[in-house]
Design brief:
Elements lengths: L1 E7 L6 H17 L4 E3 L28 H13 L2 E3 L2 E4 L5 E8 L5 E6 L24 E3 L4 E4 L8 H9 L4 E6 L10 H13 L2 E6 L1 E4 L2 E4 L3 E3 L5 E4 L6 E7 L8 H6 L5 H4 L9
Parallel strand pairs: 1-2, 2-3, 8-9, 9-10
Antiparallel strand pairs: 1-15, 3-5, 4-5, 5-6, 7-8, 10-13, 11-12, 13-14
Helix pairs in contact: 1-2
Length: 278
Amino acid sequence: MLRIALIQNQVGPDRAENLERALGSMRSAREAGAGLVTFPELALDRFFPQYRTCGWADSVAEPIPGPTTDRVAAVARELGLVTVFNLYERDAEGRRFDSSPVFDADGSLLGVTRMVHITDYEGFHEQAWYHPGDTGAPVYRTAVGRVGVAICYDRHYPEYMRALGAAGAELVCIPQAGTAGEWPEGMYEAEVRTAAFQNGYFAALCNRVGQDDELEFAGESFVSDPEGRIVARGASGEEDLVVCDIDLGACAGSTARRLFWRDRRPELYGTAEFNPEE
């Protein structure tokens, strides 16, 4: 049995203070018995993608490894805590990404997942800030199990969620920035539950919370089991440490892995594409 924790924190204007609170939340999670912790999208920063331009945003873009990830890695190592983080990355070529570094229980950086699909609509002008991710859909062999990451908008793409399942993910962590009333009632939850059910893995969606300039983030983080059932849920509109016990052994016996995967025929539909302009 694995205990996981979703850190549903509000982000304030002081980035250094946000980091100390994040590290403190890791300690609280470990004290609660967690072996893995996951954070929301842009865990340390105000949500600058709500604007097409923002004077301070470039100053918080960091390399990975870098100053922030060094601090996170040190605490992960100290606590023996697998950690899925999220921050604004700047690579050696100056490109910017929405990125989740994944640290093992010994603090080692297992890799970085970069958000693949980049959107642009009111309140989420992400194409103004992020390059499309180029790391694919990796699954990391951690001390607690096989962990994949789907960053916010990527969760809308069944083919991405399927790729994580095909790579053997037992748990998919979803750092999210979802606002109150952003989607039709229940739909953002339903699609994650469906992905968990169709692919036979646990899914842990960790959402931002609180008022952030023009946007109000909803919280309501949750965990779905491999049968699509909600097994834990965070508070609505307030900070929360969502702690949940999951049995990764349930993945092997899930409906998807007993039946659906057995009868797949990807040779017939794996490369099919629809061109809406035809």
